[in-house]
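One record is given unchanged without comment:
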Amino acid sequence: MITPHPQRLRTLLARYAQARIAHFENDGEATRRALEDATYTLCVTTGTSTAEAALHRADDLLAGSAAPYRSTVRDQGERAMAA
């Protein structure tokens, strides 16, 4: 699985949360479709098959991405400067 960019995950998590709230407040066809779409996209992006698993996987990915992501960018810059 390709690891999604942390900002992409945050955006998908926010979209999922908004869809859940909207569906809770107004249980209709449009809000149900929006929630299904947000759930599907989050599941595909995290390589999971349920909303619960996708949320856990996204949390794990975000928790593990903070330091390595910054160090990777820093390391690339240092290598470019050394070249």
Summary: Residues 6-82 form one domain.
